Fold:
Amino acid sequence: MRNEENVPAPSDGALRLESSTDEASLQRTRARSQEIEAAILEDPSRFRMLTGDRPTGNLHLGHYFGTLKNRVTLQNRGLDSFIVIADYQVITDRDGVGDLRERVYSLLADYLACGIDPAKCTIFTHSSVPALNQLMLPFLSLVTEGELHRNPTVKAELDATEGRAMSGLLLTYPVHQAADILFCKANLVPVGKDQLPHLEQTRQIAAKFDKRYGRAGDKKRRVFPNPEALLSEAASVLGTDGQKMSKSRGNTIELGMDADTTAKVLKKAVTDADRHITYDPVNRPEVSNLLLMASMSSGEAPEAIAARIGDGGGGALKAEVTSAINDMLAPIRARRLELIADRAYLQEALRAGNQRANEVANETLEEVREAMQMVY
Ligand code: TRP
Structure:
């Protein structure tokens, strides 16, 4: 690799990629997200939304409150919605995750059980949409090696693989993610802040493509839009031990768990020595997180739940949060069981989503070929 010290300062664009998670930049993104929320209420037809997940594990409460609920709301407001089940992203940092096909159907069942409607939302898998993947080639030509290495999310993921060598796909998957977003010309991407560097890279690729192929001057001739982030404002719930909710820590409450398993997991939740329950996120993070989960599940304010429990201690708190979560998830779980038992329905939903995604991707690739003078 070139010695970065001797290379002229990166272009303005590259600097922004690194700083897209700075506090000031986050503030701007949050403010912009609020403007976008207002614009959606006014005219949802101006937006096409794309978001997605890696099919690596079952979705849990963190996903539900953090993004799924909001996706359903946006879909029901009439936004044209796309969701990618990112099967090619699974192989960025490992050889496999067990039975990938089962994981894909399980993720699909999670989505549909939560209210994502395959009639309103195009759900598709990367590997089924060749034209999307083909965009990766021209897009890679628009990105420098230095930019790839500076992506903070890729750096963090590399750290998490504990010294294993970085695959070429791990280094370049943000470019592939740009193809996810741009193949359908999405202008709105609901994401958490860890994904902001990828979105910044996507914006750069979109702008560079149109510039390189002479489409930047006239808005109407541009091939790609400028996709914007919609940052979720929901308070994030932590795991049952007060740490980040993640499968590997065993501290999650999965949407698909049954009520008894949920009760068991919550019985082991961490609390503290003070029997008097209060909502105090700074000084009592574990207790407050349980109250927050109960609150987000039932709609009752966390302070009110705490007051009701009073001196009941951790046991009463756990009983409270268990029933709030189990009540809220009961219909989702019942629906999920029906869906899992009906493979033909899931297959048909995915087939229809993949077909629509292919139609859209083929059209975009045609425009890209046209712009690149590669129509023969
Ligand atoms: N990288 C995202 C994640 O790990 C999943 C994803 C794939 C995605 N493609 C996307 C998110 C496009 C938003 C837009 O969660």
Summary: Residues 50-54, 84, 86, 89, 177, 180-181, 189, 191, 195 surround tryptophan (CB under 6 Å).
